[in-house]
Amino acid sequence: MSGGVVAASAPGKIILFGEHAVVYGEPSLSLAIDRRMHVTGEATQGPTTVNGEALDPHHHAYIHQALQLVAGGHVRLTTASELPSAGGVGSSAALSVAAVAVLLHLKRGTAPPLEDIARTAFEAEYATQGAASPNDTTVSTAGGAVLLSPTRLAQGRFLWRIERGERVWHAHGLDVPALPLVVANCGVRGRTAEQVAKVRRTVESDAGARDVVRAIGEITREGVQALAGHDLKRLGRLMNRNHEALHALGVDIPALARLVDAARKVPGTYGAKLTGAGGGGSMIALTERPDEVRRVLEGMGATAFRAIATSRGVEVRP
Ligand code: PMV
User: Fold this and answer.
1) CA of 276 to the centre of ligand 1 (A)
2) Model's pTM, two decimal places?
3) Each residue's pLDDT tens digit, 206-228
4) Relative to the CA of 86, which ligand 1 atom is closest?
């Protein structure tokens, strides 16, 4: 392992369309946002530590998996986050991506290719959560707008292909849109692994739920067209439909639904939906009045911020 400190950062993300359905081979459309996870690391003779504490495989599950996968020896790691944890904005993926970038760089002595980071970070997420799509880790690695799809598409810039069992996902980079978006966290922790497992049970036992998953896929495909045409009204309507479909899958909770309803009532709001795994976590609103929506949602006890899409993916340097 090379000496010296390596520092990496990786962005969080919001899912515009397709969460949960993407686990079952439907497309998803996500944006990297301008809030990041920072990780530094250096080789050490002593035990591996995270923020000065001995690595705890349970508490530091994503880092533990990243260390297992990269197998580079003992390291001293520090983390600092601009993202709410368990907040549906991709903090665990950004942590996996930044940690993998640091560990691969320390092991190889040179900046690793993005595709290696995306693959290894996906494996770390998968091992920790028991099920996952490569959506969050791909967006956090590549930055920008990312369309994940079971087949290779003509749209955008082809990034890479990732397989797991019988599933295969093709990642495509799209132009980064300037969308007026507000993100609000409802204050209830949403646990991705639990929500993914819950949806899996429903999808396996209920044909109606499988129809909902396919309907989300169709919404996402329409969303890609609406985004290309910068048609905010259509995007908003599709976000609303996507939210109702996620509600039908059982991942909406009253605390999120209240925020979604309140945001939709502000004049100038095109649409709103939960984002990420649900069961808590965050919602997003597409609105001409982001400051007003933020004030309304904060008045209801949410933590809200204006999200700006960013083309900056993972960055790693010695
Ligand atoms: O909880 P988040 O924001 O990391 O989103 C998870 C997205 C899911 O589609 C629910 C799961 C996945 O791995 O794609």
Assistant:
1) 5
2) 0.93
3) 999 999 999 999 999 999 999 99
4) 1
